[in-house]
Specification:
The chain is mainly α. The protein has 15 helices and four strands. The strands form two sheets. It has a two-stranded antiparallel ribbon with strand order 1-2.
Amino acid sequence: MDTIASLFSFITTPVSWVIVQFHKVYGALFGADTGWAWGLSIVSLVILIRICLIPLFVKQIKATRAMQTLQPEMKKIQERYKNDKQRQSEEMMKLYKETGTNPLSSCLPILAQSPFFFALYHVLNSIANNDTIGVINESLLESAQKAHIFGAPLAATFTDTAAEATALDASITTVRIVTAIMIVLMSASQFYTQRQLMTKNVDTTVKTPFMQQQKMLMYIFPIMFAVFGINFPVGVLVYWLTTNVWTMGQQMYVIHNNPTPGSKAQAAYLERLFKHVTRHGKTRNRRERAIVKAIVVKGRDRNEYERKFITGLGKEGLAAQSDGTVVKSEASTVAVAEDGTPATPKRQQPKRQTKAQRQSGTTKTADDVEPKNEPTSLTKSDEPEDAKPAPAAKKTAPKSGTGGRSKAQSGQRKGQQRPKSPSKK
């Protein structure tokens, strides 16, 4: 423990100072020696640290999504160089460098919290051993030892003996009940946070080994917290339970408002956005405009949920613009393709004639139809009816099996002929 104290001495004093400042505020409200004053001081320390780590959390989200995007390429590299691990590693590093992705970015919030976690652990362990540390002097040390959270001292652990619990003015049964409940809550919150990430905010269209690893971590992390949690003091359990609850709430907010493309959360978000846009005819804020803009820019690379969103807007007479706004479309009845672009009408093929129609030549094509504006004679001919030439006799149809279609006579066109009008004398 002395080695750990020396390694984290640069952070132990600031952590103890922050706890003492919060303790002064809560001590004036609940009493200096109460568990509420010391417990809320630890909770406030967690909230302060997590607020400072919000930029790292945003970077973690971007890194995680970038890693999900690269999974197909990573899988190709693994299959191509499966027998050459060195070349595989070189190609992976080259891919990370080209895309500007850092796999360690997804672990930044946990790594950044580690110094504060170990510093708080050492502070509480010093309180249990009746040692002053940082800015915690003799009077504050005595006050912290008297503080109990639901009957369990801040420095007590699940593995303490009955004599150690009695020295801290507590019952070993109460200590173990309180610590066991907190360990279960801590592991359950960790499991739910990871499960929420895997079931709602992961692109389901990409099946890669990365997803299998994340599913394994969903079960491994809670087990690790349960195993190591029996050695954590009550104050550290309060710290870790608070940070897990914060992470869970923070992730729920991100999933609800900025989901991963292709995930179930995006489908639910676009459905909510579609209902609002069709009701009011516009987007509400900058965040919604940014999401609509990103969908429009993708073009034909949109996923299933994004195509459904754009198509639905077209059917409602709305159109998404490149700046993220939504306006009324001039032609609301225009057909919309799956990718959101106006669909061109299909070219209709001419109706095929039957064999009998082709042989008789009675079916007129578009070329044979007389134009409507052709002048016609409305006056009757002066010639008597007898002078008019008699209609040509009908030709007998060729017998079946004599060679198919009848050939046109010399000087005549195929098909039915129009009688010539008599010339005026």
